[in-house]
Amino acid sequence: MKKKTKQFSISLANKSGQLSQVTRCLADAKINIMALSVADTAEQCLLRLVVDKPGEAAKLLKDCPVTVAETDVLLIELPNTVGALAKAADRLRSKRVNANYIYGSTGRGRAKTFVVVGAANLNAASKALVRL
After folding, report:
1. Residue 26: count of CB within 10 angstroms of its CB
2. Residues sharing a CB contact under 8 Å with residue 31, sequence separation 6 or more, in sequence order
3. Topology (CATH level 3) of domain 2-70
4. Helices within 40-100 (DSSP H only)
5. pLDDT tens digits, residue range 55-114?
6. Which CATH fold topology does 73-128 show?
7. Cβ neighbourhood burial of 94 (10 Å; 0-12, 13-18, 19+)
8. What is the pTM of this model?
9. Are 76 and 129 in contact (CB under 8 A)?
10. Count of C-beta atoms within a 10 Å radius of residue 97
11. Domain range list for the chain
């Protein structure tokens, strides 16, 4: 599986309870988080996440007291095996596609994993990853 989807980038204060507030809103609305990444500084953190119902999440997050930005990304499902990510990275390199960031999560069961790819040229990234 490989598809273009929305990523939500949420700026949070770097203090206790901030992640819980956002993830609880999503959970209560039955929105599943498929992959996430958290990068922090002393004052702030940036939560990036991809969910199974991006349209519903966009509406819900607008009502939360957080700053949210939406970005198009690729969500790809890879086998959870040694070298699977290296193969994907090799394909991006061979087509000279720069991935601005990549993060992942467990996928369906232990056989698969989800990887989120953010790139300036998503069409080129998608074409490079066509046979994964």
Report:
1. 21
2. 51, 52, 53, 56, 57, 60
3. VC0802-like (3.30.2130)
4. 54-62, 84-94
5. 999 999 988 878 899 999 999 999 988 999 999 999 999 999 999 999 988 666 678 888
6. Alpha-Beta Plaits (3.30.70)
7. exposed
8. 0.87
9. yes
10. 21
11. 2-70, 73-128
